[in-house]
Amino acid sequence: MKRIISPINLREDRLPPGQHWTERLIILGISDPPETDLKSYRLKIFGEVEEPVVLTWDDILSFEKVELVADFHCVTRWSCKDVVWRGFHVNELKKLVKINPNVKSVMIHSLDGYTTNVPIEYFFDEDVIFAYELFNGPIPADNGYPLRLIVPKLYSWKSAKFVAGIEFMLEDRPGFWEQRGYHILGDPWKEQRYSD
């Protein structure tokens, strides 16, 4: 299994400004975890692609499995070191769909109605994966079961839980928290917590 260590773990300023280390991931969310049956679960890839694709859970498990070790930075000022996620790298999507070269952003859609936008250059980064395991087992429901996007270089509201859809977009548009005053990007080292 390929192992990826996020470059953020190697920064001299590893802990972003205004953050403090915690020993574990703290559970936050907009709703209770949705009930999910893996037999009926589907992941939709749509928007600015030549042909939309719908994946089953078996399809997801057929992708090359990777392990990501990355610090996790929450906008509420806590950070957790060396969190271990396993799943598939976002580059697998490029093998499935032909993406419009003018795409600027991706909107992630979750089973509970949550959405978040990620600029395309952050989405297709070396340390971004869709995770279905956390440490030594399946992702617990509170942490995003069955599938969670992990974007280590941005605050963790961008690491959407319960992922059900990946929408490629020609223009950036705000997701759930971005519509409620959170920063459109969310870089922890620039303290981009709110839109001002």
Describe the model.
By secondary structure, this protein is mainly β. The chain has a single domain, classed as Oxidoreductase, molybdopterin-binding domain (Sulfite Oxidase, Chain A, domain 2), CATH 3.90.420. The protein has 3 helices and 12 strands. The strands form 2 sheets. Strands 1, 2, 5, 6, 9, 10 and 11 form a 7-stranded mixed β-sheet that branches. The longest helix is centred in the N-terminal third of the chain and has 6 residues, at 57-62. The radius of gyration is 16 Å and the shape is globular. It starts with a strand and ends in a 27-residue tail after the last strand. The mean pLDDT is 97.
Number of strands: 12
Number of helices: 3
CATH architecture: Alpha-Beta Complex
- Helix and strand element order: EEEEHEEHEEHEEEE
Structural class, please?
Answer: mainly beta
- CATH topology descriptor: Sulfite Oxidase, Chain A, domain 2
**Helix amount:** under 10%
Number of domains: 1
Query: What is the typical, i.e. mean, pLDDT?
Result: 97
Main β-sheet description: 7 strands, mixed
Our Rg estimate from Cα atoms comes to: 16 Å
Report how far apart the termini are: 42 Å
Shape: globular
Uncertain residue segments: none
Report the top-level CATH class. Answer: Alpha Beta
- Strand composition percent: 25-35%
CATH superfamily: Oxidoreductase, molybdopterin-binding domain
Protein name: Oxidoreductase, molybdopterin binding protein
Organism: Sulfurihydrogenibium yellowstonense SS-5
Domain Oxidoreductase molybdopterin-binding: 33-177
